Amino acid sequence: MNEYRVKGLSCGNCTLGLEHQIKKLEHGETATLSYNSGKLKLDPRVPMDRVEQILKTDNAYIDWSQAQSQTPPPPLEHAHSDHDHSGHNHSAGNHTHSHSHDHAHDHNHEHGNSRIIKLLIVAAVFYGAAVLAGDQVNEIFQISMYVVAIILSGYSTFIRGLKNLAALRFNIDTLMTIALTGAVAIGEWKEATLVALLFGINELLEGLGMEKARRSMETLLQVAPKEAIRLEEGVETVVPIASLRVGDLVVVKPGEKIPSDGLVEDGRSSVNEAAITGESLPVEKAVGELVFGGSINNEGLLNIRIEKAYKDSSLATILHLVEEAQETKTPTELFINKFARYYTPIIMIISALVILIPPLLMGGDWSKWLYQGLAVLIVGCPCALILSSPIAIVAGITRNARNGILVKGGVFLEQLGKIDTLAFDKTGTLTKGEPHVEETVVYDEQRFLMVAGSIEKSSSHPLAKAIMKKVEAEQIQLVSLDEIQTMSGQGIVAWILGKQYWLGNEKSMSHLIIPSQVQGQIEALKEKGLTLVLLADHERILGMFGIADEIREESQLVIKQLHRAGIRRTVMLTGDHQKTAEKVASIIGVSSFYGNLLPEDKVSKIQELSQQGPVAMIGDGINDAPALATAQLGIAMGKGTDSAIETADIVLMQDHLGKLPEAISVAKKVNRIVRFNITFALGLKIIALLLTIPGWLTLWFAILSDMGATIFVTLVSLTVLINNRKH
């Protein structure tokens, strides 16, 4: 599929119509045109000249300057007179864009809105002058001023409407054209002009509203670096980031963006990872540490060994998924679009009945009921209804992406706002996944930490690292080992200064008879859910470490915030034994917990929870992937495994849960706004239609109710982008 950027789309309903026409072309069955993102995806065999002709009917066009290496068709005669194809070289295998081509597009359409605004202002002046003149000027002169105002503000709508009418396509342009023609036919010049003027203003504001949401998304997508400085044999060369390969060494100077994911090979600096994680605080990076493409190097010079080609980097993955997310339609959007397809013809039938039934069956005045029927046509515009959802969805996805939360589609954003149960994996999600010494029981102050540290100092085992942190914190002087032996699954035997020591679990202490007092303390630590490491010589136990997985600092607060945000149940699922699960659960405050679970047990538990309401699962490891896929919504920690991130519907790009409550609040706000917009748009239309019964509906009220509703739902949807500081 080829992908193109389309500009000039006037409204969501019109975009659906254009997509429908493109699908009728040869090989066009799979074509998609997204109003949200302004993207057109086509089979390469679809004739592009025909596509451009279809787009032209709505004053839309393909921006060839942003097309992905696609060659534009031969020049079409179209409305944008300064669109210049002379900058293209169409020779085989060679395609270039000249500056003049890009500039022609940019210049023409950058000032398109200002041109429309000027025309609408002039039209408003003519309309105002005609109204104020009243009976003081010649009627023909007054009508001429109305005609000028109509042409300036509604000419393009009228032409599109006539074309649609000829093709029996019924959309907003068709409705407005019939209404304008009818109003003029019965001599309602003032109201016909107002309809044209307000419709022109509405189209402008509707376009600006969607453009605001798109531009907010595009700003997010522009964080990708364009070039990198590659270092080869001591020579620095500026290259496009697309040319970087795994293993390349790049130089990143202060203030520059890191081109792709890699490891620091030389240098030290703080790095701003906000583009990836949403965290504004800089992170210190030194030799051997991982850095993300798109991060900004703050002060030091860094030499980075590229670990991933840019297309596979974290940033490229995020940008690709965010772009795809705007193009997915939620169930609400799909329903509204389907409803709108039948809604417009139904409104035309109602309008015809309003015009015909009162005069024919009740002796009503033809001109009065023709007027009422025309007002019904204007009320029937589905724009406000169709815009109820997409702007809010795009704004919600963008808002969360700014915070480092990647929602892979509008449907998942909608689901996130409906979730009432959150299931958490424990290790690496609610806890850090890094053991730390929580308690020590010491019987020999002089030897305990010195011997334990001397034995564990060269070990890479997670429990050994926890012990070494404790030893280093106490600044204990260590000694060399005479000899060391590992006992699989039990611990270590070592000789220090000619004396033998045992370090490990209870099984490694089989050479001793453990006194009841010491055994009591062992049992007490086990009751607390701690993992034990004991140290003994050949005579007695010297002390013991109680080790636990360290709970994340934010976990307790996050759980409280989630409950306040409307999450009914928080559930912890873990493979650890029940005592450990109980301890962690009691500290962080989850509603319930389940221990001793294998990956398949987690899946069963998710299925069980799902019977009581919609469930989201949050995890970070390979063992979490099945549960993530089973839940209605899978949420992965961004620094977790690739399989978890791939399976998940939402990715937290930080290594913590701190931003999750705000993401849920944003999703709930989007859902509230969509519901409000739909209710408001439909409610206003029902009220307007009810006014036709006593014959009170006027073109003024019809146009204000419809266009006002469209503008209002657009502005309400954009409030999603406003950052509420209380979060």
Automatic annotation (TrEMBL):
Membrane topology: Multi-pass membrane protein
Keywords: ATP-binding, Cadmium, Cell membrane, Ion transport, Membrane, Metal-binding, Nucleotide-binding, Phosphoprotein, Translocase, Transmembrane, Transmembrane helix, Transport
Catalysed reactions, as listed in the record: Cd(2+)(in) + ATP + H2O = Cd(2+)(out) + ADP + phosphate + H(+)
Location(s), subcellular: Cell membrane; Membrane
SUPFAM superfamilies: Calcium ATPase, transduction domain A, Calcium ATPase, transmembrane domain M, HAD-like
Xref: Pfam families: E1-E2_ATPase, Hydrolase
Name of the protein in question: Cd(2+)-exporting ATPase
Membrane-spanning ranges: 116-134, 140-159, 342-362, 374-398, 673-693, 699-722
P-type ATPase A domain residues: 224-323
Family: Belongs to the cation transport ATPase (P-type) (TC 3.A.3) family. Type IB subfamily.
EC class of the enzyme, as a word: translocase
Region (Disordered) residue spans: 66-109
Biased composition (Basic and acidic residues): 77-87, 99-109
Origin: domain of life: Bacteria
NCBIfam families per UniProt: ATPase-IB1_Cu, ATPase-IB2_Cd, ATPase-IB_hvy, ATPase_P-type
EC annotation from Swiss-Prot or TrEMBL: 7.2.2.21
